[in-house]
Amino acid sequence: MQSGHKTILIADDDVAIVDSMAAILDFAGYEVLQVFDGTSVIESVKAKPDLVILDIAMGGHNGLMVCRQLKRQVRTQHIPVLIMSAGHNVEEKAFEAGADDFLAKPFDMDMLQQRVSNLLLKTA
Length: 124
Hints:
Blueprint: E1 7-11, H1 15-27, E2 31-35, H2 38-44, E3 51-55, H3 63-72, E4 81-85, H4 91-96, E5 101-104, H5 109-123
Parallel strand pairs: 1-2, 1-3, 3-4, 4-5
């Protein structure tokens, strides 16, 4: 799979999830940046990722707060955001916060790759 050297920022406080997602996306040819709390996302977007993947439940700022912040700022509002969560009834909240897509945990890694690819194609 050719990613065109796109950069993806993953933010989740579960290191095992971040590691497994990073391994799959790295294997697919993406450059992957990893952070483990919502507060670090705001600093990390200075690296201008092509896509941000946020868990809702994280330390610091939660994924919904981070998404709202990214979508309010002119320099980051164009970056697609994929929100993921194991919580129930949060998909609507994710889209209300400005997410471009939502993925329920647990998810299949093929589904993750498909969603990432679709979001990156929309911004190409």
